[in-house]
Amino acid sequence: MAFPLDASQPFLLPSQLRLLAEAVRDAGPHDEATWIEWKSTLDLSAPHALVHLVKQTLGLGNRSPDEAAKRAGGYGYLLVGVEPGSVLGVDSIDPSDMEQDLTPYLGPDLVWNAEYVTLDGKDVLIVVVNPPRFGDPIHYLRKGLPHPNPSKGVKFVHAEHTVFIRKNGRTMAAGPEDWQMLHQRFAAARNRLEIEVVAARPDIERIADFPEHVKVHLDRHPRRLLAHRTLGAITGDDRTRAQYETEVEAHMDELREVFAQRLHDEMLRHSPAALSLTLVNRSDRPFQGVRVTATVRAEGRIFCLGPVDDELPKFKLPAPPRAWGTRRQPVFPTSTFLGRTHAPMPAGLLATMCRWEVHEVPGGLEIEFDPEDVRPRERLDLKHVPLLVSADAETELTVEWTAAGLSAEGSVSGRFVIPVVDSTLQALTGKDLGKWGLPADEPEQAEQD
Fold it and tell me: Which of 21, 168, 330, 397 would you label with 374, given CA atoms 20 to 30 Å apart?
């Protein structure tokens, strides 16, 4: 039977990894492939677990880039604690301890990470191995793997320098054809694009919550308007009281919309909430016309409202309905509703200054940056992209990137995560907001009514 999950895209977010574990549980017994391996359970602290994890991870790292790219974006997955029809789980250990245990055998060149998901009330380990790329070195066993049962007189179960290769449903020592593929993969490094994209900031801030001080003012404002009294007894009013109250409700909806837009405007100019990436040239050669494409995803929604200039747009609050008891709007307003304004940069000029384009993709955004020339050993900051991230704090923003240049063959790709943290923006406190026309204290008359 076919694997019961669409593997045309990689599984990177916690929710996606859980779907992958569910698919393994629901799969057939012969659905293992070159990109995925599973094991019913392992004692992760036992010697035989070390042997299994190292062997399978090396095998997933030594795949053909062309073949690997056909499934899950080239990523490889090792799941422990789940198999078709059964979820036994594992006793989890800290991923940093696992990295410390495995790296001496895997070496520094193979990029992988360990995650846990909960399935049917049990922990399932998922080792994610980055896609193989042309120019990658051959990944080999950096030191001999100790035999799980040394009493048999055999010191190592696999000797140092052993090269493992992943086949359909199994991992084994590389044969002649495998060595040829691995040498061809490595030979592509002669004109390799030695570029990496990294995060310029250690985290990214989620969208700020609507400020409490504005909520308080907005809660009081309708009572203030409804408490207004004029010479209504003498002049009369062409509206009923109910119609006036409806106008007040509509006015409050406009106010909330204006303040919400102002909050977005401030967030889009709050640099800790922007996606900031750095293009790193790790070689002694320059690269021309390097174009970076980054796809960002998070557990919550991500918005990009386009490029913005540095100065906030004009802030103008809607005029309130005329007070109850009047026939027409007074010549002079009773409250100040205008703050500081400025002439925004023309949209066309702003667009020409922008050095990226954004497109919506399933679950996130795809950002295409303009080509850049990168000098040898240069770290070039790409133009930051203002984002509105609605994900909860303590979750992660996943960034998958690819880069291709005019002066080098092929492309490079990678993945990293950026922690999402609470916003530090002191929102809606600017001097240009003026007095807003909102009361600092409730009128006594409003309380009496």
Answer: 397
